[in-house]
Each structure stands twice: as structure tokens, then as C-alpha cells.
Amino acid sequence: MAQIAVGVLGAKGKMGVAVCQMVSSQSNFSLIASCDQGDDVASLLKADVVVDFTSPEAVLNNLEYLIANNKNVVVGTTGFTPERVNQVKEWMRNSKSNVLIAPNFAIGAVLMMKFAQQAANWFESVEILELHHPAKLDAPSGTAVRTAELIAESKKKSGKAKSPDATIGNREARGAQVNDISVHSLRISGLVAHQEVIFGNPGETLSIRHDALDRSSFMPGVALAISDIANNPGLVIGLENYLKLS
Q: Are 219 and 97 members of one domain?
């Protein structure tokens, strides 16, 4: 099997370093370019797949350049609003690029999101608690936003009303509202990436939690994305679409 030539953007960041190490350790991958802020990105054009773990400020410029050059791109950078996704779709109209935008690459986190989507049909209340290290730039996290989107889709299809809430005090204490779902963001030293989805009905609760204790937990998902992106045409949102879950 021919090696897949991989380029990494954001190569000096914590996730970028981990991705470079993973790619270099895999016999079916070849790390041919690793770029960070200020580097010449032309070297990325030799890659079959480019992995972007940069910043919300940089990622759109990176995508515009790579899509214009028909590169396949795996994006782990967060901060993708519907408007940003639509911009990427517009760039891809006349491109041969395949693009994956994934809020989370930990397989367990992806399964957590899917389990939460399934559970949403059966509970009247749901809230999301996401916990990360204090250096994380965005809040709520991309994983929490994607989880809320999936839950909202499920509740809409099943005709479930939004969670009951009689709060009349400070609404900010109830967290951010994402698709009418309360999302609470904690930033605490010593943490990596954690999320809990709490469901409730009269007389019972269900908690679905995922804990990423080390960035190595994301690498199998990144490897899967690099390996399979050529077989997933166009723009795909969420690694769950690569897992072929029913």
C-alpha cells in the first residue's frame, strides 16, 4: 500500500506536535511538511492530506488556500459557526477537495455524542457540562456545540419540547444557550478535555460522560480521518460519519 503524504498546519501547538509524532510513527503515512505561523505553506501542496490544528483566526485562510489547490483537509480547529461552514461550502463549489471538520477526534467522545443523540428521544430535560484546560480559546467547546446540535435534531424529529426551566433570576447562571440547550463551560488547570451530558425525567437521570486524559486519545481518530478522507467526498462535519455508525 502506498504511503499517504501528510502535511500538518499548527505543527508547534500541543495537538500539532502530537499529530506530527503520530504520523511519523505510522508506516502507512509520510510526514512531508510541518508548518506553523510564519512558515511557507507552499510545502503543503505536496501532501495528499493536510491536517489543520491552528486557531479560529487562521483556519479560514488556510482552508481557502488549500481548497483552491484541491487538497484534502482534516480540520481539528474549532470555532465553526454556520456562517463559516457556508463559506467553506462556497469555496468547495469548484474544487476537488474533500474536507472533514471534526469538533473531536477521540473515538469515545464521538460515541458519547451519538449516544446522547439517541437518548434525547426519551428524556424531557438535558444539559451539557464541558470542562477543559484554561488555555482553550473557545467556549462553549466545539464538541459541546456539536452535541447540542445532534440532541436538538433528535428532539425536533421526535417532537420533544425544550427542557423545562422556571428560572427567573440571573439567566447567565444557566449557561450558554445552544439550540435551546444549556451548556456550561468550565476552564480549570489540570484538565485536558471532558464532557458530561445529563438527561432527566421524573424519577430518573442519565449521565453520559467522556474524559480525555491525554492528547494521545485523539490520535486514532486523526489517523482514521487521514486514511479515509479520500473515500468521503465533499464537506463532512463530524468524525461520526467516518465511523459508519447506524
A: yes
Domain count, the chain: 2
Query: Out of 132, 155, 194, 210, which one is annotated catalytic?
Result: 132
Walk across the sheet containing 193-201 and list its strands.
Answer: 176-178, 181-187, 125-132, 193-201, 204-212
Q: How confident is the model at residue 171 (pLDDT cuts 50, 70, 90)?
A: confident
C-beta neighbour count of 48 within 10 angstroms: 18
Instruction: Enter the pTM of the model.
Output: 0.85
pLDDT at 159: 86
Query: Which entry of 133, 136, 160, 162 is annotated as an active-site residue?
Result: 136
Please confirm, yes or no, whether 160 is among the known catalytic residues. no
Is 136 annotated as catalytic?
Answer: yes
Residue 79 has pLDDT above 90, yes or no: no
Query: What pLDDT, on the 0 to 100 scale, is given for residue 20?
Result: 97
Domain at 199, CATH number: 3.30.360.10
